[in-house]
Amino acid sequence: MAEEKGTWLSPASYERLRAELEEMTTVRRAEIAQKIEAARSEGDLRENGGYQAAREEQSKLEGRIAELTHLLENAHVSEPPQADVVGPGTVITATIAGEEERFLLGSREAADLVGLEVYPENAPLGKAIVGLKAGETTTFAARNGRPIKVKILKIEPFEG
Description:
single chain; Helix Hairpins; Chitinase A, domain 3; 2 domains; five-stranded mixed β-sheet; two-stranded parallel ribbon; about 40% helix; about 25% strand; elongated
């Protein structure tokens, strides 16, 4: 399977994240700037809880903006592939360490949209199963180095 740029996102997930980024860079930034200015006008900034809280909120917002910007600039956006092999955008039913699981291989950013667990294709599990077909088995190393057996039971295109 050819190496794709970035993390896979469906067009719907991409648009939702793009809209979130737009909201943050326009509306939310302006709101926080107003909070900071209002708190600054209250005087001593060292003991101004409102100012400190607004600066912390600004820091978190800027971190999320940076994260989304990077994700969207590097995402591979496409409709889900055909489901004959495991790849980004497929829903996989697999036995992992003896437990049956059903999950989407794609961006964790899509997790709240799909109602499934989402594993990135660049995570150890994702790397181990990309390109496999139903019935095939592989292993990947857990964080502690222990090998974990995975058997692909079913592959479906993501319908979301």
